[in-house]
Each structure stands twice: as C-alpha cells, then as structure tokens.
Amino acid sequence: MKIKLMSHCFRCQKCNIKPHAECIKTVFSSLSNEEISILIDETMIEDTIVIKEMGGELYEGVSEGLNILNEYYDLFIVSNCQSGYIENFYRRINLKIFFLF
What we know:
By secondary structure, the protein is mostly helical. The protein has helices at about 1-15, 20-25, 35-55, 60-70, 85-95.
C-alpha cells in the first residue's frame, strides 16, 4: 500500500494538482480527520524523498532565460511548496549559479 500511496500522491504533485496534505485528504477521504493527520505526518518524509529523487525538471530555455535575467537583476525563489521541495529542486537542478541559498 505504501508504494501505491506514494505513487498516487506523487502524481498529484507532479501534475501540480494538490500539495501533499490535500492529496492525502483526497485519496483517503473516508478516514477520520485524526487518521488523515497521522497519515500526512507519516508520509511527509517519504513524499519529500520521492520529490528529491524524481521530481523537477526545468523547461527548455528556462536556464538560458535565468542566465540573462541574472545579469541585470537579483533573482529570488518564491513558492508555496511544502518545506523541502524547493530545496531539493534547487540542488537537483543546480540553481546555485542563479540563486544564493
């Protein structure tokens, strides 16, 4: 069940449909709020690991565009992602050439 859960929730997030907690609430809507809270807490670490290993690709041309913008502006990352997502994406894509972290 763990693999199925993580796979399903990763699809929700990869498609930018729902954050982890909302995905859990959707997939397990028949559970009580207490059970959902426990499940969210217990799967958050695994979810972040999956994102670290598999998630995030820059669209074609984004790196070049960031390079041009970086010549003229200070660039910042602003996100409403859960903790760990941007950090993992930053490391995976090697964004340190554009952003200080």
